[in-house]
UniProtKB/TrEMBL annotation:
InterPro entries according to UniProt: ADH-like_N (IPR013154), ER (IPR020843), GroES-like_sf (IPR011032), NAD(P)-bd_dom_sf (IPR036291)
Domain called Enoyl reductase (ER): residue spans: 10-320
Superkingdom per UniProt: Bacteria
Name of the featured protein: NADPH:quinone reductase
GO molecular function annotations of the record: NADPH binding; oxidoreductase activity, acting on NAD(P)H
C-alpha cells in the first residue's frame, strides 16, 4: 500500500509517500481500506514536533473514512462504511494517511451514506469536536448566543452550522475580511473581524456579553474571549490554531472575569455516537446541513496540503482522497 511516512519532525517536505506492507489485523482490530481523510491541526503539531508521546517513523492521521477490509472478531462487517479516529491514531500507532489503516475496533464508527468520499472524509473529527464542544463543553441551549473565536476553521464553521440548527444567535470571528462571505453563507448572524480585541464589540451586539463562547485560537485570545462573555456565561477552550495552549502563571482571580466560567473539551471516538454521525450525514444528503470542505488533495499532494494548512488560508476543511 501507499502511505505517508514522517521519519522525524520537520517541514511539509518531511512527509514522504512510501510503499509499506498492508497491516494484518489481530482480534479486536479492524483493517480499513481508506477512501479519504481530513487534515487536522493535531497532525501539524505532530509534524512540527510539538506532540508528546509520538515515536518515529510514523504514518500520521488521527482520522479516516473507508470500508472495512477485514475484522477478525467480526464486530464490524466486511464492506461496512466506517469512520475511524483518535485513540492514538497517527501518534502511538500508524494512522489514516495511507491506503489502509489498522485500528482498534473501539475507534470505529459505522455509517451508511451515498455522499462522496471527500465530503465524508471531512466529517468525523470535525463533527465530534463541534458537537462535543456544544453539548459537553458549553451545554448550549436553544435561544442562547454563542461567540466562535476562529470562525472560519472547519470546527468553527461546523459549530456555527450546528448552533444555528439549535436556534442560537451566532457571532463568529475571522482575521481576513475576504472570508466573511463564507460565514454569511452558513448563516452566521454577526461577523467580527478579529484584531485580537473584540470583547467591546461583542458587548455592543449582545448586551452584557454572550451566553457561550468557543475558543479555537488558543491562549493568546482566551482572555479577550472571557471578557466578551456575560456573568455566568461559559467559555469552552477546544482549539489552538495559534499553536499556543499554555497559560503562564495562571492566577484564577486575576485571569477570569468575575462570574465567567471556563471549561475545556477534548473527545474520542466514543464521544461521537453512530446516531449523531448518521443523522448529520443524512441531513447533509437532504440539503439541510452542509460540510465546509475548502479543498481536496490527492495522497501524493500531502506536502502541499500540509503547507496549505499551515498557511491558514483555508476556510473550512482540507481533505485528502486516496
Amino acid at each position: 500500500m501507499r502511505a505517508v511516512v514522517l521519519a522525524a519532525p520537520g517541514p511539509p517536505e518531511a512527509l514522504h509517500l512510501r510503499e509499506l506492507p498492508i497491516p494484518t489485523p489481530e482480534p479486536g482490530q479492524v483493517l480499513i481500506r481508506v477512501k479519504a481523510f481530513g487534515l487536522n491541526r493535531s497532525e501539524l503539531h505532530t509534524r512540527l514536533g510539538l506532540a508528546d508521546g509520538v515515536t518515529f517513523p510514523r504514518v500520521l492521521g488521527i482520522e479516516a473514512v473507508g470500508v472495512v477490509a477485514a475484522c477478525p472478531g467480526r464486530e464490524v462487517a466486511v464492506g461496512q462504511q466506517v469512520a475511524a479516529m483518535m485513540g492514538g491514531m497517527g501518534r502511538t500507532y500508524d494512522g489514516g494517511y495511507a491506503e489502509y489503516t489498522c485500528v482498534p475496533v473501539s475507534q470505529v464508527i459505522p455509517f451508511t451514506s451515498t455522499l462522496d468520499w471527500a465530503t465524508l472524509g471531512a466529517v468525523p473529527e470535525m463533527l465530534q469536536t463541534s458537537n462535543g464542544s456544544l453539548t459537553v463543553g458549553l451545554d448550549a441551549q436553544p435561544g442562547q448566543s454563542i461567540l466562535i473565536r476562529g470562525g472560519t476553521s472547519s470546527v468553527g464553521m461546523t459549530t456555527a452550522i450546528l448552533a444555528k440548527g439549535r436556534g442560537m444567535t451566532v457571532l463568529a470571528t475571522t482575521r481576513n475580511p475576504d472570508k466573511s462571505g463564507a460565514l454569511e453563507q452558513i448563516g452566521v448572524d454577526h461577523i467580527l473581524i478579529d484584531t485580537g480585541e473584540i470583547a467591546t464589540q461583542v458587548r455592543e451586539i449582545i448586551d452584557g456579553g454572550v451566553d457561550t463562547a468557543l475558543e479555537l485560537i488558543g491562549t493568546p485570545t482566551l482572555p479577550d474571549t472571557l471578557r466578551a462573555t456575560r456573568i455566568h456565561g461559559v467559555v469552552c477552550f477546544t482549539g489552538m490554531l495559534s499553536n499556543q495552549w499554555i497559560v503562564d502563571q495562571f492566577y484564577p482571580i486575576d485571569y477570569l472575569p468575575r462570574g465567567v466560567r471556563l471549561t475545556a473539551y477534548g473527545g474520542d471516538a466514543n464521544d461521537l455516537s453512530p446516531r449523531v454521525l448518521q443523522d448529520f450525514l443524512d441531513a447533509v444528503a437532504a440539503g439541510t446541513a452542509i460540510v465546509p470542505v475548502h479543498r481536496i488533495f490527492g495522497l501524493d499532494q500531502i506536502a502541499e496540503a500540509h503547507a496549505y494548512m499551515e498557511s491558514g488560508k483555508a476556510t473550512g476543511k482540507l481533505v485528502v482522497t486516496t
